[in-house]
Design goal:
alpha/beta, 6-stranded mixed beta sheet, 13 helices
């Protein structure tokens, strides 16, 4: 039996995993480094546990280094094939089937933004009766995927379809600009309008709130993820600086921003539930922002109805769940 390695090629991260416990995520700004994709994949593959074949999925085709999503799918697929050489490659498609690279190159719409579908099939195994919602919050986006009897219950085929259905919310725990979450922020007893500038992102919010603890990562100004630098970035959203924006001011702003994000996701869940003829009363949470997903889920479903994918597999595997999913699904092929 072939040992499959899963790869999820996103716009901001490359994720690798297998069905035996290996999982890893690597920052990669595809929009700035598209010509480095094949070589970077080759390097990452060389450091992965022994594998015989690769199963891939993608969302990076939406990166603005590509004029069209079709161009993006073709470039990502060609980069994977270049990195793999003669090794087998199977690409997961939005209809739940694996296809050869040649077919994906001919029909690129089949593979565009397909990782959520694979993720739902894997995560739903941890739902009672395999029915409910898969809630995955990542660095950039939130997926709200209805599942019934282990099958993805949606007519959506594209990200645009999913945005309209409430199944995709473009908000995450690291890369979402603060000015996309709120038009005002509380500031010393008043609501201050927010500058429509890329000064701070949600990574700053959750750094100040204590959910993100590391000191390095992608930030709006390129400086560190220290709490001081995070507060500096947040201050600029109300046109202030460290002389007029304290830690207490930052905490008030961050608590408000978290509440805005939670409500945005909660409303989308309600929309997805309202579109289903089957009650969706249970949820499994996953992603690099699983802790936020769990908070939202407990508000909507109640604590006893929430399953954690990281507790079922591991935190690293939950973060790279789509890569785990395609590796697992491929290993189960007849």
């Amino acid at each position: 039996m072939a040992n499959w390695l899963g790869i999820d090629v996103g716009g901001a991260n490359l994720k690798l995993a297998d069905s035996h416990g290996f999982a890893a995520s690597f920052p990669f700004e595809l929009w700035n480094r598209r010509d480095e994709l094949a070589e970077t994949l080759r390097t990452l593959l060389s450091g992965a546990p022994k594998w015989d074949a690769v199963a891939a999925t993608m969302t990076g085709e939406l990166a603005d280094c590509y004029e069209t999503k079709h161009e993006g799918v073709r470039h990502i697929t060609e980069s994977l094939r270049e990195a793999l050489g003669q090794s087998p490659l199977a690409v997961y498609c939005v209809d739940g089937e694996f296809r050869a690279a040649d077919q994906v190159l001919t029909e690129p719409s089949l593979a565009a933004a397909s990782n959520w579908h694979a993720l739902a099939r894997l995560a739903s195994r941890h739902l009672p009766a395999r029915t409910g919602i898969v809630l995955d919050i990542g660095s950039t986006t939130t997926d709200i995927i209805p599942v019934v009897d282990g099958k993805v219950l949606t007519t959506s085929k594209t990200d645009t379809d999913r945005l309209l259905a409430g199944e995709l919310v473009y908000t995450g725990v690291r890369r979402t600009p603060v000015c996309a979450l709120a038009r005002v922020l509380p500031y010393r007893g008043e609501l201050c309008p927010v500058a429509a500038e890329f000064f701070a992102t949600t990574v700053d919010v959750y750094r100040v709130l204590g959910d993100i603890v590391e000191l390095e990562g992608t930030t709006a100004d390129g400086r560190s993820l220290s709490e001081g630098h995070a507060i500096d970035r947040l201050a600029r959203q109300v046109c202030a600086d460290r002389m007029s924006f304290t830690h207490a001011d930052a905490m008030a702003a961050c608590e408000y921003l978290e509440s805005q994000q939670v409500e945005l996701i909660r409303a989308a869940i309600a929309k997805v539930q309202s579109r289903s003829s089957v009650p969706l009363e249970h949820v499994v949470v996953s992603g690099s922002g699983e802790w936020l997903a769990a908070r939202v889920a407990k508000l909507v479903f109640g604590e006893h109805e929430v399953m954690s994918l990281s507790q079922q597999i591991s935190a690293a595997a939950s973060d790279a769940a789509a890569a785990v999913a395609v590796a697992t699904l491929a290993s189960e092929l007849p």
